[in-house]
Amino acid sequence: MIPRLSRYARCFQGVLPSALATCARDGTPNVTYVSQVYFVDDRHVALSCQFFNKTRQNLEENPHAEVELWDPLTFECFRLRLRFLRSETSGPLFETMALRIQAIASHSGMTGVFKLRSADVCEVTHFEEITGYTTGPAPTTIEPEGGPLNELRGLQCLSARVSRATNLDDLLTETLVAFEDIFGFRHSMVLVPDGASRLVTIASRGYGRTGVGAEVAFGDGVIGTVAQEQRLIRVGGTRDLAYGRAVRDRVVDAGGGGALRPEIPLPGLTDAAAQLALPLIVQDRLVGVLVLESRDPLAFDEWHEAFLQIVATQVAIAMDRLAAPDEDDDAAETAELPAADAPAPLRLTFYASDDCVFAGDEYLVRNVPGKVLWRLVTAYVRDGRTHFTNRELRLDPWLGLPELRDNLESRLILLRRRLEEKCPAIRMVPCGRGKFRLEVEGRLELIERD
User: Fold this and answer.
1) What's the CATH fold of domain 5-130?
2) Distance CA 312, CA 314 (A)
3) Alpha carbon distances (Å) from 426 to 148, 222, 365, 373
4) CA angle 57, 62, 65 (to 5 degrees)
5) What DSSP element (H or E) covers 261?
6) Which residues are paired to 8 by β-bridges?
7) Rounded distance, CA 142 to CA 234, Å?
8) What is the DSSP annotation of 387-398?
9) What is the pLDDT of residues 308-364, one digit of tens each?
10) Disulfide-capable partner of 82 in 37, 122, 262, 416 (CB 3.0 to 4.6 Å)?
11) What is the model's pTM?
12) Do the beta carbons of residue 292 and residue 241 sit within 8 Å?
C-alpha cells in the first residue's frame, strides 16, 4: 500500500539531495543526484531533467527507477519505486519547475545553461521506509505550529492594519511589521516597478541596511523573475541562493569604478536558505513584489504559498488605492526662506545625463526621484518655497511621469527615505493628503552638470 505522498511534503523541498537510480537495457546501473523531485499528487512525482543524458536514455530503455528522499527534520529516509510515464516540455507543471531553476540560474550567471529540459512524470509504484541510517530512539515528527484558526486570526489582524493605512508609506511599514509580529517572518522587503524594465526597493525590514533605492532588473534572479513572469516563486533548502548572492556581491565589488553608475546594494541575507517572492497584482497589472527571506530552509511551506497570496492580494489592492492621484490637492503654498546661519552650505550636485543627485561627494538618488528632489530644492533656493503638492509634480512635464499609473507616491517614499538615511538635513514632511513640506537645515549650494 502506498501512503499519501502529501504527508511527506518536507521531503520534496530539496533541503537534502535526492539520489536517483536507473538501469540501462543491458543491466548497467546509474546513480545520480537530482535537483528536483517535484510532488505532483499522491501517486505521481516529476523529476527535473537538465544535464542527465544517461538518466534520460535509461528511462527510455527501461522505464523503472528508484529515488531516495530524506526528511530534513527527522532524517528518516524513504525509497520510492517509480515507473516513467512521460516527459513534459510545456504546460503548467513544466513552467512551475522551470521557473524555479530559471531564477536560481540567474543568480549564478548560468542563464541559458542551467535550465530545465523536461519534467519527467513518474508513477509511484512502491513506497518503503529505509531503517538503519540512524541510531537511538525513533525520531519525533515535528509538526508546524499554528493551524487554520491561528492563520485566520493572523489574516484578520493584518487586514485590519492594511485597512487603517492612510498613505502608502504607512501601509508598507505596517505590512512588514505585521509579517514579523504576526507570522514571525523577520526579513522582508517590497519593490515596485520603476518603468517597464526594473524594480526599485522602497521598504524593507529586518536587515542591517535598508537598501531603499536598490534596483533589480526584470528577469534578474528570483525577484526579477517573479516580476517578469508575475508568478510566485519559493526557493528553499539550496545553497544556490547564497552562492548567487555571493557572485553578485563580488561583481559589484570588482566594478566600483567611476565609469559605473552608482548602485545601492539590495538588502538581503547573505546566508539565506529560503526565499519566497510574491507578485503584487491588481487586474493583471504588477504593482510590486513582496519578498520574504529566512535562514531556515523550511521556513516556507506549501500552505504559505496559498495563504500569503491572499495577503499579497489585499496589500496590492491597498497599494493601488493609496497610490491613486489625489483630485482635491490645493495649490502649493509658499513661505519665506528661513535664515541660513550654517557656515558651510550643503552641496547638492545634479548630473543631467542620468538624473543623478549627489549630496557632497556621496551618491543620494537618481532617475525620477532625483529629478523630483532637484525640482524641490531649486524652488526652495530660488523662490523660497517650502510647501508642495503631488498634483503639481504630476503636471510638471520636466519630470516625465506617465499619464496613467505614474507610481509617484512610491517614488516620493523612496526619496523621503533616502534623505533620512543619507541627507537628514533635508526632510520631506507630509502635511495633508497629497501635500508635503520641505524642511532644510542650513544653506544649500546647487550645482548642475551635464
Assistant:
1) Pnp Oxidase; Chain A (2.30.110)
2) 5
3) 47, 35, 13, 10
4) 95
5) none
6) none
7) 21
8) EEEHHHHHT-GG
9) 888 899 999 999 988 776 555 454 455 454 454 545 889 999 999 889 999 999 999
10) 122
11) 0.70
12) no
